[in-house]
Amino acid sequence: MVVVGLIGIVSAISMPIVEQTIASFRLVGSARSVTNALAVAKIRAASSFTRVRLYVDLTSRSHHVETLDRSVSPNHWTLDGGSTTLPATVTFGYSVVATAPPNSQATINQAPACTQDDGTVVGGTACIMFNSRGIPIDSLGAPISDGVLYITDGTAVYGVTVAATGMIRLWRTYPLATPSWVLQ
User: Fold this and answer.
1) Where are the domains of the chain?
2) CA-CA distance, 135 to 168, in Å (whole number)?
3) How many angstroms separate the most distant Cα atoms in the chain?
4) What contacts 43, CB < 8 A, 6 or more positions away?
5) 29-88 pLDDT, tens digit each
6) Bridge partners of 85?
7) What is the CA radius of gyration of the chain?
8) Degrees (nearest 5) of the Cα angle 23, 29, 34?
9) Cβ-based neighbour number of residue 156 at 10 Å
10) Is 28 helix (H, G, I), strand (E, B) or coil?
11) What does the pLDDT look like over 91-140, one tens digit per residue?
12) Angle, vertex CA 87, rays to CA 81 and CA 88, nearest 5
């Protein structure tokens, strides 16, 4: 009976720690998933000599890679692979963090919104697009240096940055009360 009581006490003490660790793994996994999807978009753009973008739906908390199909007129964005949805506790956002990661943005904000085939802006989205040389560009084809996607679960914020050279980095800030970005 004493052994069963001790097991119960140890379980009660360790349960919050296990839940916190699992939540941390979900957030880290989501951040790495976005980082990997950006790397795939960059490589596909260079290998297929066309524009490729990571399309992020902020509302449904999902992302996927799209390729610009120039074989049809007008040009059309087509899904390249499947869509990835973030876990229920993780969202695209930067919570209360007020400063962007070093050398990324002047003002913290998600990457620019995606556009439809005709150039109209799609609300509730964020896109990072690469040209055929793997350089991040805007919808007009001009190089950009402020492509950042933020992911949070309310305890920490991850920022996936893309430099003007195409270099992709993953940053983390914790705690939220006094944030300081750390390269992962």
Assistant:
1) 2-183
2) 11
3) 76
4) 134
5) 999 999 999 999 999 999 999 999 999 999 999 999 999 998 888 888 999 989 999 999
6) 62
7) 19
8) 130
9) 20
10) helix
11) 999 988 988 998 888 899 999 999 988 889 999 999 999 999 999 998 88
12) 135
Residue with tokens 């990072």: 128
How far from chain centre, in Å, is Cα 88? 15
Six-digit token pair at 116?
Answer: 């439809």
Those residues with Cβ within 8 angstroms of residue 33's Cβ, 6 or more apart along the chain or in another chain: 63, 84, 86
Report yes or no: 22 and 30 within 8 Å, Cβ to Cβ. Answer: no
Alpha helical stretches, state H, the chain = 2-48
pTM equals: 0.88
Q: Which fold has domain 2-183?
A: minor pseudopilin epsh fold (3.55.40)
Residue keyed to tokens 């790397």: 39
Paired tokens of 125: 């989205």
